[in-house]
Amino acid sequence: MEIKVVTGDIVKTKADAIVIPFFKDNEQLSGDIANIDQALDGAITQLNKRGEIKGKLNEITIIHCLGKLPSERVAVIGLGKKEELTKNKIRGAIAETCRRLRQSNMENIAFIPQGIGLDDIDLEIAAQIMTEGALLGTYTFQKYVTSKEEHSEIKQLLILGRDDSEVVVLEQGYRKGKIIAEAANLARDMVNEPSNNMTPTDMAEMAKKLADTYKLELTILNREQMKDLGMGALLGVAQGSQQPPKFIVLRYSGGDSSEIDVALVGKGITFDSGGISIKPSNGMEEMKSDMTGGATVMAAISAIAQIKPEINVMAIIPATENLPSGTALKPGDILTAMNGKTIEILSTDAEGRLILADAISYARKLGAKSIIDVATLTGACIIALGKVCTGAFGNNQELINKVLASGMEAGELIWQMPMFDEFKELNKSSIADVKNVGGREAGSITAAQFLAEFTDDIPWVHLDIAGTSMTEKERNYQIKGATGVPVRTLINLVLSLAK
Ligand code: BES
Ligand code: MN
Ligand code: ZN
User: Fold this and answer.
1) How many domains does the chain have?
2) 102 given a catalytic annotation
3) Ligand 1 atom closest to residue 322's alpha carbon, by position in its atom list
4) How far, CA to CA in Å, does 228 sit from each of 216, 225, 268, 317?
5) Of 56, 100, 223, 279, which is the active-site residue?
């Protein structure tokens, strides 16, 4: 889909469909919408009176113009009650509209960002969220389907400005929205890819591609180099797999100092079978998504490199498979992490915290001033929060608040979980410094407390995305499969830290 911002009058625009908003309890149509209604001999008003157009959120009504307007059709999209409208509802409604129009093979559509209804939304943000809704909502992952799609693609989406000065502002919002949505879709692509084509080596190759395209500094450590650095926890997980592990580091330097302002650490388990503590086979295929954290931080830093804020960011992705074999890690084994702490293994399926232990230690050793880690870490987080929101854990309320606000801005829901010291005791081992499982209770918190053993006092937030990385349903701008969460949150966060 090509999105273009142009000067134009929606009433005079020739397209397969022009899209206009409609609110619930709408008293009086005005401006362009009133003009369109008039051209259609009052069709919108009539349909509203008869109860066919109610203005309910995501209600889509297609009216054929039959020559009364240059456009073939008018698509009226319901946005609900005006006072209850949010940016995320707009993203969702635009997404639903684009999919509906695509289903009917409409290839050229036009939108007006004015009058989208939020008085406090300026035109720049309106163009940004419309672009995000359109690009996120029409995402597909069909590369392995050899039969043809039943519908064509939307070729062109016009965002109309009334004059040149509006176009300049809209263009800015569109550019930002495109970078952000494409980053989320990149993460979706990587996560939807099956694990046979998204091995640690494949992730490293993707990192190379992104580094070349967006001028990021790239370091990839192999097994030997990890050994030299003492990454015993990561290597313990990797020792059961035939695939060589990769420790991927991408660096964006937009600040004037040489310090790393923020390190984004992402779990990169390209397949989690559980290892010797093997998972039940039912649903195991979902564990190709256990590298979502890694994909997320790679996508986020690529977007940041395009937006170019004044800040230094590092993305760190420890990547390996977690498989059982004759050489695999075993319950009862003890590993030594990069920071010297020893870990008693109770379950080889609690592998995420092991690879993150070394990645966080690495970030600390390089002197990162703050750390955000993103991981599909625990099934317990899904039990606690469902698939509705990501769990946030941390040691610095100011940073946590910034993460929560960034998530809210993106429409990616996040809920803070408690980190009382009492939880820490559950990870105590009698024969090592810590054990990698804290028991059945409070499983997502003890996992976070395990990570805290490696962060020390550096401001740190851990995001457990076990429940939010994938979705079963197509809804709003979410498509079945990988969600791209929390790429947009991370981008917003870095931009807010740069301010
Ligand atoms: N990758 C899983 C967590 C997960 C489960 C993510 C379901 C997405 C959906 C993680 O490595 C894992 O297996 N965690 C164990 C920890 C347990 C052994 C302490 C879990 O949650 O069961
Ligand atoms: Mn696991
Ligand atoms: Zn895992």
Assistant:
1) 2
2) no
3) 11
4) 25, 5, 21, 18
5) 279
